[in-house]
Design a protein that fits this description.
2 copies of one chain form a homodimer.
Chain A lengths: L1 H5 L9 H9 L2 E5 L4 E3 L7 E7 L2 E6 L5 E7 L4 E2 L1 H6 L6 E4 L3 E7 H10 L1 H27 L2 H16 E3 L4 E3 L5 H8 L3 H13 L3 E3 L4 E3 L2 H8 L3
Antiparallel strand pairs in A: 1-8, 2-7, 3-6, 3-8, 4-5, 4-7, 9-10, 10-12, 11-12
Helix pairs in contact in A: 4-5, 6-9, 7-8
Chain B binds a DNA duplex (30 and 30 nucleotides) through helix 8.
Amino acid sequence: MLARLAKTQIFANLDSHSLHVIEQNAHSKQVDPGHCFVRQGEPALFFYVLKRGHAKVTQVTPDGHQVLVRYIGPGQEFGLVAVLSGYEYPTTVQAVDECEVLVWAGELLAQLMERYPLMGFNALRIFAEQNQELQRRYQELLTERVEQRLAQSILRLAQQAGHRTAEGTVIDLPLSREDLAEIVGTDIFVVSRIMSRWEQDELVQTDRKSVLLLQQAALERLASPI
Amino acid sequence: MLARLAKTQIFANLDSHSLHVIEQNAHSKQVDPGHCFVRQGEPALFFYVLKRGHAKVTQVTPDGHQVLVRYIGPGQEFGLVAVLSGYEYPTTVQAVDECEVLVWAGELLAQLMERYPLMGFNALRIFAEQNQELQRRYQELLTERVEQRLAQSILRLAQQAGHRTAEGTVIDLPLSREDLAEIVGTDIFVVSRIMSRWEQDELVQTDRKSVLLLQQAALERLASPI
DNA sequence: CGATGAATTGACCGATGTCAAGTGGCGTGG
DNA sequence: CCACGCCACTTGACATCGGTCAATTCATCG
């Protein structure tokens, strides 16, 4: 149990005594697919670490467009920024799997961070990484075409939530055309056309529950803008 | 002198004794327009705080596109992420004005942060803000048209580097069409067309050294996607 | 076996990227 | 002080991508 906590980003490198204290202050919670952990605009009262399953982070723009920001996997936290500095959650986080989370009250988290400065360092590292990741994607968005971005997004998902099989890498997430469209910033029709072509060319294979990358190398070629 | 340091984001809320120690460890440097403080890809050895002037942060993508990430003004830092966690600077930072910076060696910064935990907190806040800002722009990019993004970018620049005059807000930065194109992710032709139209409609007025917003309200209407 | 929602496909059009030609302003050197 | 050349910018024509809508097919679940 503690071993698992030690593998999370935010509690990395803490000694087992500290982890014990931290864990005693947490609540564990099981959540069904489709259920929302936090909703955009609600007051940020809790901080979460995902123990099991996957969640998707979405945001609705002022004009009603939905954007899929990222997927969260085991060991990753969410709600940190909001709890530390904001009043409201900036995003909605929804379970896509059967999930299990650890939950801390926001005030408690501030106390823990004061008590264990290492957590502050970890938080810094998390933010720094997220910043770089976001920056990279921002740049992609500025300079690349939909097809390239789609290839890159799928490869990224494969890297963070895929597992290798004999035929290729499988992404065990229910990625609808709509989801993909919200990731790359287009509509379902454009995504559908591109995916159809890729399926025809036997680069990928999709069903309602997963995506199978048959020719990862070819996708990488599409993703890289050379 | 110390008062100025106290107004920077990273050294905010530190007591004057700490600021004194911190300042004694810094070097001050004058830099001419066009000169680069740091270059993308070089080892991240120094951390900077801009005392006077403005600098632009750019990044070159693997395929050679240049992206203008943001402008930096007095009191803002740069190089923090790179020095703390990275090996190389991820961006190039170039003076657009006559600039003055304070410089610290990277290792020194780590020591200072250990000694003054408040700096860690400040860094967290800076990253959190940058994250939210980047996220907001990422979302814009995903869902909005070039004209909207251009309006928003100009309004943002006005907010962070503009000053009010009788005729309207003036942005005292040499914003070429190329710069604007790199900010919104398009080419100079599209920018040129839009700006020409805006000048014709007397929304803005530009020359080589500045941009004048004549009808900010109209720009805000263009920027908001309703 | 129908009903429902997701996905596909085609047609169309507007936004934007691309290229070529021309204009204007600014600095430099004669 | 003028002429030239350079560079940023403008403008037009055109090609292409991608967004929008309508019609249809497909898959899944009662």
